[in-house]
Amino acid sequence: MAEAESVIGTPDSAGAEDSAVPEERAEERPRGRRRIVALFVVAVLAYLIDLGSKIVVVEKLEGREPIKVIGDLLRFEAIRNPGAAFGMGEAFTIVFTCIAAAVIVVIIRLARKLYSLPWAIALGLLLGGALGNLTDRLFRSPGAFEGAVVDFIAPAHFAVFNLADSAIVCGGILIVILSFRGLDPDGTIHKD
């Protein structure tokens, strides 16, 4: 028995490398699963917060005077936006719907190779925000794939936006920071 243990334990033995690889992969899988769980938890939270805020805005604010939050610097004002950021591209609502759907598919596919918690958070924010605005485009008037997004955060001298937009922007900024720091979604760090 001791002889068998010493043969298995030596690095030169034929089976040692093969048996070490599955152990390393077994250790990586739970870490990877935890990162995927983190991605989806962040996405669900971002989505639910956005959805809840839009429900409240539609019920309490739509068709009413804007609410001043910080004097003239910030107000809440319900606006339906069929276009993209800053109200651009109102005639291309269906295109924005397809782009949001494509982003969601790409993030879900990328999640399989995800081993970095910061990337999981960033992608979760992007996914939750994309789902929030996609939900509006699919289910709000004037109809499926042409729905207008509910925007309500109106800073002075800036575009009106919503919490899904905020999640997308924060996720995008985090991805830029992670990229500049050389951290890849798979957890590896590279220096260029």
TrEMBL record:
This protein's membrane topology, according to the annotation, is: Multi-pass membrane protein
Q: Where do the segments described as Disordered lie?
A: 1-27
Q: What species is this protein from?
A: Streptomyces hydrogenans
Name used for this protein in its record? Lipoprotein signal peptidase
Question: Do you know which PANTHER family this protein is assigned to?
Answer: LIPOPROTEIN SIGNAL PEPTIDASE
Q: Which gene encodes it?
A: lspA
**Please, which domain of life does this record's source organism belong to?**
Bacteria
Localisation per UniProt entry: Cell membrane
Q: Which PROSITE patterns match?
A: SPASE_II
